[in-house]
């Protein structure tokens, strides 16, 4: 662990969006300069909220957040802000500075080289792929040359080359980095410690070691605490039984009962507050709409090469039960193909009429951010049923409070789980997934992969998560790179 000055210190910080639901409860920890740490916690625990407390965007209800004077901080956010989509690359990076520097274009070029991206300065941000936007988000933070770099799910949408490039950069990065990510291999390559945010206690604990070691250490500690509590409970019950017996006796027996009561009180005080480990969603199935006719027809696709579109002819028909994986590097046009197909405005990429389509967009733009999560689930059903909605929400860790929350206020991980809950209720004939592992806790991914593997409808997936893809049956592969002439 780096042993420089403490650059960030939380001192008994309490913060919550409501008095009943605290994100942090008297949390204390410190970060030293040049440290490279992972911020760990389940979906919805408040990791992004903690970043906002560090930057000063949010203020604690109690306690103090102390930043070493003169320390500069920059955040690489999870998703591109909607208001940035219409800006050019030049305009987007100009917002990183209080005053636009005279050498802005050179600084943009130098920073884009770091993230391995070529981008015309007059091209709108919204015209870049999800993976390219992920690199822009990182570059936006890097161009500020901060003392502390906060990265929120930086590997989302990145292909393998992009992840390798980011990993090499972080290993060599000479300043402080705090990273939120569910990519264990990525984190293990450079992290030297973990801050664990417990969603139930609102406490933060600091561990030394790589991500996998810490996950195992936490699991072992939970089991030790449970075993200790089980032994204490046995002792407590034994003492209580004797208290009940001796309390009705006279003389010395009554004094013994009093002493036993004191032992019970001590034992109860020694009970360990067992951390409820990250919960995992239960097994689920996505019912498929019966459909006997061809579901998807692709006669041509648009391939992006050097930021220029090219048409590639093809002939692909998908029926119920077909599982298609679409491959290719960032920026080649995978998300564009999915969007074009779902929007239905290209005669060469069509979906049969009357097919129910479930579309997982990597930016969740298919969700209505203004409605509650409950209303979002209800809108996915032909005939909304309160009991079914709440039972399905609970299966995806969306409790009553989460269901009453506007979709836009949910964490990115909760939005992802909301999408899967909607698919269960929708019973689609076609499922389209654009990077479905983004933002999702790694504990949930095997469960989700099993549900997709078992799905009996037509399935189309774009994903750079190799371990996830290997768990799903795909009978066809469309590699866009092979279509380039």
From TrEMBL:
- SMART domains registered for this protein in UniProt: AAA (SM00382)
ABC transporter domain ranges (all copies): 8-224
Q: Please provide an example of a Pfam family that matches this protein in its UniProt record.
A: ABC_tran
Keyword Nucleotide-binding in record: yes
Q: Which UniProt keywords apply?
A: ATP-binding, Nucleotide-binding, Repeat
GO molecular function terms here? ATP binding; ATP hydrolysis activity
List where the protein spans the membrane.
none
- SUPFAM superfamilies, sorted: P-loop containing nucleoside triphosphate hydrolases
Record keywords: Nucleotide-binding included?
yes
Q: Which InterPro entries match?
A: AAA+_ATPase, ABC_transporter-like_ATP-bd, ABCF, P-loop_NTPase
Give the superkingdom in one word: Bacteria
| This protein's name | ABC transporter domain-containing protein
> What lineage is this protein's organism placed in?
Bacteria, Candidatus Uhriibacteriota
């Amino acid at each position: 662990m780096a042993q420089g000055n403490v650059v960030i210190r939380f001192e008994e910080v309490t913060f919550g969006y409501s008095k009943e639901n605290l994100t942090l409860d008297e949390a204390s920890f410190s970060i030293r300069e040049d440290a490279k740490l992972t911020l760990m916690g389940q979906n919805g625990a408040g990791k992004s909220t903690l970043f906002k407390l560090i930057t000063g965007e949010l203020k604690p209800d109690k306690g103090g957040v102390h930043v070493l004077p003169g320390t500069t901080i920059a955040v690489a956010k999870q998703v591109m802000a909607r208001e940035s989509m219409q800006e050019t690359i030049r305009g987007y990076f100009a917002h990183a500075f209080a005053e636009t520097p005279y050498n802005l274009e050179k600084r943009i070029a130098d920073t884009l080289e770091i993230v391995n991206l070529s981008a015309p300065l007059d091209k709108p941000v919204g015209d870049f792929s999800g993976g390219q936007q992920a690199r822009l988000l990182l570059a936006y933070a890097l161009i500020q040359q901060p003392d502390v770099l906060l990265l929120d799910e930086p590997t989302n949408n990145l292909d393998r080359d992009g992840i390798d490039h980011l990993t090499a950069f972080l290993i060599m990065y000479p300043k402080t980095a705090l990273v939120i990510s569910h990519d264990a291999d990525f984190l293990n390559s450079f992290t030297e410690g973990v801050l664990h945010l417990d969603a139930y206690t609102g406490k933060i604990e600091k561990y030394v070691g790589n991500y996998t070691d810490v996950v195992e250490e936490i699991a072992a500690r939970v089991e030790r605490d449970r075993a200790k509590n089980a032994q204490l409970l046995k002792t407590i019950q034994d003492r209580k039984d004797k208290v009940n017996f001796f309390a009705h006796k006279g003389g010395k027996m009554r004094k013994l009962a009093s002493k036993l009561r004191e032992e019970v009180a001590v034992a109860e005080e020694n009970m360990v507050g067992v951390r409820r480990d990250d919960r995992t969603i239960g097994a689920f199935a996505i019912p498929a709409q019966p459909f006997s006719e061809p579901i998807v027809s692709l006669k041509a696709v648009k391939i992006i090469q050097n930021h220029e579109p090219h048409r590639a002819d093809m002939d692909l028909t998908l029926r119920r039960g077909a599982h298609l994986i679409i491959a290719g590097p960032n920026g080649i046009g995978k998300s564009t193909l999915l969007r074009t197909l779902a929007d239905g405005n290209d005669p060469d990429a069509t979906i049969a009429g009357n097919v129910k389509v479930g579309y997982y967009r990597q930016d969740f733009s298919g969700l209505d951010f203004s409605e509650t999560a409950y209303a979002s689930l209800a809108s996915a059903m032909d005939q909304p049923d309160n009991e079914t909605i709440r039972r399905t929400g609970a299966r995806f860790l969306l409790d009553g409070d989460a269901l009453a929350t506007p979709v836009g206020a949910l964490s990115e991980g909760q939005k992802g789980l909301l999408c899967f809950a909607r698919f269960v209720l929708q019973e689609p004939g076609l499922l389209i997934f654009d990077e479905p592992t983004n933002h999702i806790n790694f504990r949930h991914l095997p469960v989700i992969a099993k549900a997709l593997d078992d799905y009996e409808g037509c399935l189309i997936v774009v994903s750079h998560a190799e371990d996830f893809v290997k768990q799903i049956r795909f009978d066809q592969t469309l590699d866009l790179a092979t279509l380039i002439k």
